[in-house]
Every structure is written in structure tokens, then in C-alpha cells.
Amino acid sequence: MATPNDTQANKCLFCRIAHKQEPKSQLLYDKDDIVIFKDIRPASDHHYLVIPKSHVRDPKHLNLNDVELVERLVATGKEFLSQMGGSVDDARLGFHWPPFNSISHLHLHVISPVKNMGFISGLVFKPNSYWFVSPDWVLERLRNMNKT
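That's the Adenosine 5'-monophosphoramidase HINT3 sequence above. Prediction below.
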């Protein structure tokens, strides 16, 4: 797990946020190895980023051993969204797929309500496009790694 003294943790913005080294960022959830904070450019009323504290570059760099991590990110994100008054039934969850990610630290977008997203946000967070993939797609990809 990345610690504040690790070189990568010092270079990565999301590592610094996870380890409370970014004074302008506020963690809304901090438990075990997962943190949640607001997206700086919200696509809807609720837009949160759910990240592991340890540095994982992006969803493309996950492997079969990371299935549980992705499942926990999703479960934590959904539970948090519900606690914040967002609707899981009208939510979009997903990861930007490289090279279309802006930060090279694994982060799950949790956005709700989808019906309040603008046109551009709808494109940026278009489900199962070349640039934005669902957690189910990522999990299926990881589980299929075992079959090759």
C-alpha cells in the first residue's frame, strides 16, 4: 500500500488526496483501503470518485487478483451514494479507459441522477464506449483473464 513517504504517493494527486496531503480536498469517506471525495467537475447532483488508497494506475492495469477490489469499490460507492441521498437506480458508475483517463490512479465515477447530466457529460461518461467502461465490463474482463 502506498504511504505518504513513497515517491509514487508524492507524485500522484489522488495518492496525496487519499493520504490527506491535499489541503483543498475533503475526504467524504475514509475506511480501510478506500476513500471517496467529490469530483471537481461534477456531471450531476452527486458525482463522487471512489479510489483505493494504494496506487493502482488505471483499470487496464488490473488483473484477476483485483476482482475483489473492484467489487468493493462498486459496493462502497453505491452504499455511499445512497447515504448521501442519491439514487442507485438512476446512477452511472464507471471507469475511464486509458488513454482517456485524466488521472493515472484507479478511480470509479459514481454519478447520480443520470437524468440531470448535461449533453457533454453524457458523452464524457457514455456507458461502455471506447473511453468509459462499466464496472461489470471491467469485472468480466478480469475474470476472463483466468481463461486464457
